[in-house]
Amino acid sequence: MKTFFIPTLIRITIFLGLILIAVFSVSERTFEPPSSDYHRRALASVSRKKHTHSHHDYNRNLPIRHTEKLLAPVAIVVEPHGPAATQAGDEFELRVTIKSRYDLSSLETEWILPQGVELKLGSLKDTLYSIKSNEVRVVHAIFQQMGGNNEQIHFRVKSLDSHLPFGASIQYNSLDQSDIDESIAALEKRARAYMKDQKAKVVK
Amino acid sequence: MNFCGRWLLLLLAISVTLGCSEKKSTNEIDDRTSPTYQGPAEEAYCSTASAVASPVTITGTAKFQWRQTFGNLIVGGLGAIENTTKPIRRAEVRAKNEAGTVVQCGETDSSGSFSLDLPGNTGTYTIEVNSRAFNDYAKASVLNKPEFNQFYTITTTVASDSSTSVGTMTAPATASANVIAGAFNILDQIVEANTYLKTYAGTGTCASMGCTEINVAPKVNAYWVAGFNPGSYVGTSGGLSFYLPNYARLFILGGINGNTTEADTDHFDNSIILHEFGHFLEDQVFKSNSPGGSHDGQSVIDPRLAWSEGWGNFFQAAVRNSADYVDSQGNTDGSTSLIFNANIEDNTNNTYDDPKPGGSDLSKGYGTNGEGNFREFSVSRVLWDSIDSANDSESITGGFSELWSVVTNQSWGWLASKWKFRSLGLFHKLQSEMGGSATDWSSIRALERQVNSRREYAQYITPDASCADANYFVTIDPDSAVSGSPNTDYFENYDFYHLSLTSAFTGTFLLEYSDSNGAGTKIDLDIRILDKDGRINNSSDIVAQNIDDNASSSPSVAESTSISNLSLPAGDYLIQIFSWNGTGTPAQYNMKLNNIKLCLKDP
Questions:
Q1: Which residues of B touch A48 (CB under 8 A)?
Q2: Which domain holds residue A146?
Q3: Which of B57, B291, B313, B523 is a plausible cystine mate for B163, CB 3.0–4.6 Å?
Q4: Does residue A84 share a domain with residue A24?
């Protein structure tokens, strides 16, 4: 009986532990306020891009000079609107904000979906017309997470305006986005600390 | 089991469960520290063949798969893997014995072929071709990350029983193989850039014009990992390739969060690779004073940044012998499109067409001489026009050698120590004054509304009694279409000067100005003195400033703004005179140091 009792106890404790973790995890995602870390950082990113010449825009966040790629005339930000997906079957809404620095006659939008995500509400392709400079347009869509793996959703825009032909895209990770954002923020922090440390050594 | 034992088991179970729920796809970000990180030394390069006993000769060819961009913004992107492979040129080849010791070295030739002598009948060897070169054709390593400094390798094995060929070793471009071909394409583009330099600026090409000849560029490291976005270093989720000045490091976009088939990548965007290599050249071979930062190709920006990015755009076109500048995202294995496809030959119907009538930057006027000095693609076009053979309202064919002479000459040219805050105006000044067989660029300057002087940016100002008469003024004509504080029209609303102090200065900087017609909205001029880095609007570079409002709102009343008790060590300063609101009628002003007028005078 004793040898039977211990595995059962382990099973029960693991089961209870899983429930605890699941409840904790779900509650954290479900009730995370909209001003989450990802939300804030995404908006800050747009802010840096759209104000090409704003204060401290140069060098972005690192205390070091570096070059940058050609900047698209529009800034696009994707963020979950409501709870993010946590498991297979979850539906989640993504909201994309689009802001152009120039007047655009039309802008094509497209969701690029992996096999593990299905569109439940909204349009895979659309066209926005007569966008004014600094005007914000919003695109919504609702998706369903079909499996347990993180899926990468891409949102692309394309302008065929004769004066402003360009494309741009952004990626959203269905399950891992908050982890990725935390990692990027942590890397930026490490880089800043390292450079500060290196500078101090040079000064010495 | 007692109570404590049960709780230990519970804790164990929870900890195991937690371990399983760790983040999944961020390792490539998590094991990095900084783009400036000084990691372990790169493994020693090995190219010299060693003599071996009873040699057998092993031959082979190294190649890589590749993709190329196609189409246009409507239908275009990065294509499928090409049917034909490209040779891995001038790369390091090593042979290792079964213990992993390097026993022989060599390099591939221009067709990717190699030949190594191995000691006969001594077992099986691993032949590896590496993503680096250090020879007369290129000095470059394509590495994974500064924290590891590990190059990429394709390998095969061979027994040293007899002389034989290992056949063709191919680096694959498939996502499942981590697109290792991307590393070899980056190396190949650096070889290509070096070939171009040697052809047009190597021995015997431009010394007579005063250039510093270049047969191979200094060592450069290109960091790249499939699926990694170097933008992560600077906190952005958007795809980013960049060059890190003073470190001779390119960071090339390998994808985003492990994705290489739908996300933005640059390992097959040769335009981007060569553009960043162009930045490396201006940093390590000649000189850049660019503050770095955002640029969209068409806006009026800091002219040093416009020069730097315009040079990069031009250089990629020169090496590729194509006026197109192309960036793609994804590829046809997933989903693909172009991000931009700009033509730096055409300024008539193009995204980046300013300055021209009805140009894209509609908030500005057009066609004002000097405006082109502040626009990235205008810089690119004029440099391209100087070497291309197309006669699009110009017939300049001065060639790269002449251009290279301007930027590498150390006495009269770009590298003379007296020049700071270098931008296109300085380039034009030097080119137009170089004499000898220099080409007359006046037609292409006119096309692009550029001026061949530093009058619009960073001209020297010097205390000089010779200009101390009442008629010495500079006119500023603010762009009334722009408002905000401060606005960002660096061409119309700002004037910049280079003040070089050979000894420390103490006293007062005075700005006197008056409205041009004494009517309308009065201009409010202000002063900033920036240090040698001179980054506009970067508070850490501001040495002193006076941005007070006008004392009087009446346009008929003359104004003055001063910075008193100023204490400046000897050095170079960027003087910024600017219209705070970007409104008002044109004004005339003069500047004084301790009541002596500052005159425009290049040394």
A1: 236, 294
A2: 34-203
A3: B57
A4: no
Best B74, B296, B366 residue to mutate vs chain A (most A CBs within 10 Å)? B296
Number of domains composing chain A: 2
Q: Which of B409, B435, B457 is the last residue of a domain?
A: B457
Q: Between residues 77 and 136 of chain B, which touch chain A (CB distance below 8 Å)? A: none
Q: Which helix (H) or strand (E) holds B166?
A: strand B164-171
CA neighbours closer than 13 Å in the CB half-sphere of residue B514:
10
Domain check: are B493 and B450 in the same one? Answer: no
| Helix (H), strand (E) at residue B377 | helix B376-387
Lowest-confidence segment of A14-18, A85-89, B126-130, B308-312 by average pLDDT: A14-18
Q: One-letter amino acid identity for B571? A: G
Which pTM was predicted? 0.88
Query: What gap in Å lies between CA B193 and CA B90, rounded to an integer?
Result: 13
B539 touches chain A (CB under 8 A): yes
Q: Is B249 on the interface with A (CB under 8 A)?
A: no
Contact A71, B293 (CB under 8 A): no
Domain total of chain B: 3
pLDDT of residue A148: 95
Query: What is the reported pLDDT for B396?
Result: 85
| Distance between B205 CA and the closest CA of chain A, angstroms | 30
**Which tokens hold the place of B603?**
């040394």
Instruction: Report CB contact under 8 Å: A102, B362.
Output: yes
> Is A9's Cβ below 8 Å from some Cβ in B?
yes
Task: Give the DSSP H/E element, type plus range, for residue B157.
Answer: strand B153-159
Helices (H) and strands (E) in chain B, counts: 9, 27
Residues A64 and A130 in one domain: yes
Please indicate, yes or no, whether residues A106 and A14 belong to a single structural domain of this protein: no
Say whether both A73 and A10 belong to one domain. no
B226: pLDDT strictly greater than 60: yes
Q: Are residues A4 and A39 in the same domain?
A: no
Which residues form the domain of B98? 55-177
Same domain, A101 and A141: yes
- pLDDT bucket at B6, cuts 50 / 70 / 90: low
Query: Are residues A186 and A130 part of one domain?
Result: yes
Cβ contact, residue pair A183, B337, below 8 Å: no
- Contact between B553 and B522 under an 8 Å Cβ cutoff? The reply is yes
A residues 84..123 contacting B (CB < 8 A)? 101-103, 112
Contacts of B295 in chain A (CB under 8 A): 52, 68, 70-71
Q: Which amino acid is at B207?
A: A
Contact between chains at A70 and B360 (C-beta distance less than 8 A): no
pLDDT at site B468: 59
The verdict on A79 and A136 lying in the same domain is yes
pLDDT band at B360 (very low <50, low <70, confident <90, very high): low
Inform me whether the C-beta atom of residue B24 falls under 8 Å from chain A C-beta atoms: yes
Instruction: Let me know whether B389 and B442 are in one domain.
Output: yes
Of B256, B290, B537, the CB nearest to A53: B537
Residue B572 lies in a domain: yes
Query: For the segment B469-528, what is each residue's pLDDT rounded down to a tens digit?
Result: 555 677 777 776 554 545 567 888 889 999 999 999 999 999 999 887 777 788 888 999
At B135-192, the pLDDT tens digits run 999 999 999 999 999 999 999 999 999 999 999 999 999 999 999 999 999 999 999 9
What pLDDT sits at residue A35?
Answer: 28
Q: Is B327 part of the contact surface with chain A (CB cutoff 8 Å)?
A: yes
Whether residue B167 contacts residue B60, with contact meaning beta carbons closer than 8 Å, is answered with: yes
